[in-house]
Amino acid sequence: ACMQAAEQSSINVKCRINTKPAHEGLNLSADASIPQQSGGSKYTFSLGGGFGSLAQQGWNVYGSVAYSKQEVLQSVDRSYAASGIQPNRGLARTSGTTFPGNYSQSATLVATNPTLPNCAPSQSALIPELFGPNSCRFDFSQFVDLIPEQEQTTLYGKGSLALGAENTLSLEYFWSRNTLAVAVAPTPLTSLPLTSTSPYFPGGSAGVPITNPALDSSLPISVGWRTIDAGQRASEIENTTQRILGSLDGTVLGWGYNLNAFYSDSTVDNTFTGGYVSRARVIQGLAGANGAPFLNPFGAQTAAGAAYLNSVKVLGQVQDITGDLWGTNLTVNKEVLNLPAGPMALALGVDYRKQSIDFKNNFELIRQAASSGLELAEDTSGDQSVYAFLAELNIPVIKNLDVGLAVRYDKYSDFSGVFSPKVSAKWQALDTVLLRGSYNQGFRAPSVFDLFAPNSLTFTSNPYDDPVLCPDGVAVPGADPARDCGQQFQQQQGGNKQTEPEESDSWSVGFVLQPMKDLSFAVDYWNTKITGLVGALPDSAVFGDPALYANKFVRCSQLTPSERIALQATCGGQSTVDPLAYVIGTTENLGDMEAAGIDFNIQYTMPAAEWGKLKFTYSGTYLTKWEQQLVKNGEWYNALGRYSFELDFPAFRYQGVFTANWTYGGWGAIVTNRFRSGYADQNDADNLLEGFADNTVGALSVWDLVGTYSGIKGLALSAGVLNVFNSDPPFSNQGSRFQVGYDPRYASPFGRTWLLRAAYSF
Question: Taking the CB of residue 177, how many other CB atoms lie within 10 A of it?
């Protein structure tokens, strides 16, 4: 009865049936998924075993170990994502901080590159249609990983003890270590001073050409330079987690119950392993100061310059994040009353948990590293506790009509308590027709990360013009075009203690038809509204309406002296203007969101035949509405069937999954199709070549085929191919992600992938 109630509930009723499972014997398994194209293979191995029988000996012990490795998939491994410069598709996703470096003199508004007009293929290119005829652009996409390298090792152990025939006491332990290697484009350094004392000053002794006659060699120049010779910015993130759980479940005085207590902790270490450089020491190298060899921002380094650049890398652990979670919960359930139409079931529960998090930074390192995103990071910590009560009643009102009533009360340490009610009904109108509906209110508090995550900086993937210093792409007097025009600006991310919970109202109505034993149809219409959505403003919205979001622009004059030092790449030196330090994109309460759609499911099982059994399933969702505000009482933006520039995502009008499952003795096969409808693309005309701002992203349809064999006792074999037809992801000109040529949030870059699995139990 409790399981039936839980199935109808949206308030996390927890039920547990005491089946006294016994894990006995030894289990071995190995998996491999290998793309046909290079990169991205994944391998997994596991070993598990147990002994003892709860039913016969009254105890059981089980343990397992598993290891998996995901190999890196680089952008250059896929032709459609290997470059942000694809003229045949209108793509020009680039950065104004390039190699060889661009330079300018704000006094005369010179912006140029000594390698013009060819720049330095393939890493940089001239794109005059969008960014003018004087400066080169950097193709950062070729340095981006589509899938990072990842390794994971896990250990698990569980011991169970039978307490009589109805109750079980168990204790389990889980440990995991996950290592992620992240690599991005080499460090971009802007507003670097270079004077004519350097042999690499244009027109100097090293032979760097003067490509703009307006250059005044008596004045310093400002250089924007990618430190290619220092390599990609690389970091390793290691997450170690452990959890211990004790539970007692069974039946007492006719009540089914589950009582557990748990504790877990996690440590995340962030270590710079390459590519990050000290801006201050690079500036010394450009000036040849303090015995440093002169660095060349416009070409290859000398052996001494390369060695010096390697010596100014910032390496080592830069962040240590720790967190813990502990709590306890109890759920009970029972058939409390026999009504004429059947038993009435009651489920009750109480839950308490507390979570804390602590961020510590190695300021000695992060204050040196340029473009690390941690320049303004501070140590932060916080905790959050919550207790909740829940009750759910399943009432058989009349024959074939069940009504569910539920309520949940949540009280967080940060927020006022909230009641969340739900009512649902199911009516078996005919043997072949089931009608159902529900209404419920929801509540989601911001997590400890939403509240307490430290602020960090990241570059926008799209380039923009500073709306004050470079309106419409034209630099004002005193501006630095290499810093203020067509640039990837910094965006602040992180938690916000002022964030409030979001609340929702949802309702649905639907039916299930079963005209014959092996055929069923289910259709449900649903409608949801979320108030005070927790999220972050996309940079596209901020730069798209700088007047509305003026408070999101933080300029150097607004920073403290120490913050200006930390952001000296933008805010250092003397300036007659006020540069843009960053835009704010931290967690906050946005406006409201409304969505509605139709879910359906069709299942058909063919009669058994000599060649086996065949079952078909098709499930899909058709959206009829998806609108959202970015600020309370603000304008509504529509993402239905189109990429909303303001919301920074599309809502697929339709998506569905088809499966055909065949079995014959020990043999089997599954054919799967995953489909998503197309949509109008982001089509940001400011960052696309002329004539390409009307793209439609094609529909995504991927077929998979997997065969299985289990005809030998204890042995299970699988082999198959994912993405049978080797379909590339549909082309998208989106610019909200650093990966280009497709949208990595919705499509996979793996292509045709061979799948192998073997498992043996004895």
Answer: 15
pTM of the model: 0.88
Per-residue pLDDT tens for 35-61? 999 999 999 999 999 999 988 899 999
* H or E element that contains 564: helix 561-566
Beta strands in 78-164 (DSSP E): 85-86, 91-92, 102-105, 110-112, 124-126, 136-138, 145-147, 149-163
How many whole angstroms from its chain centre is CA 707?
A: 31
Q: Under DSSP, is residue 377 helix (H, G, I), strand (E, B) or coil?
A: coil
Omega of the bond leading into 343 within 30 degrees of 0 (cis): no
Which parts of 317-462 fold into alpha helices (H)?
A: 363-366, 448-452
Q: How far is CA 151 from CA 177, 410, 640, in A?
A: 8, 37, 38
Give the span between the Cα atoms of 343 and 315, in whole angstroms. Answer: 66
Contact 74, 120 (CB under 8 A): no
CB contact at 8 A, 466 and 480: no
Q: Which H or E element spans position 64?
A: strand 59-70
Residue from 747, 754, 698, 697 nearest 724 by CA: 754
pLDDT single digits (tens) 468-482: 999 988 888 888 887
**Half-sphere CA count of 556, side-chain side, radius 13 A:** 19
Residues 6+ apart with CB under 8 A from 304: 293
The predicted pLDDT at position 4 comes to: 36
Helix, coil or strand: residue 232:
coil
Quick check: 171 and 62 in contact, CB under 8 A? no
Distance of CA 466 to the CA centre of its chain: 28
587, two tokens? 């967690």
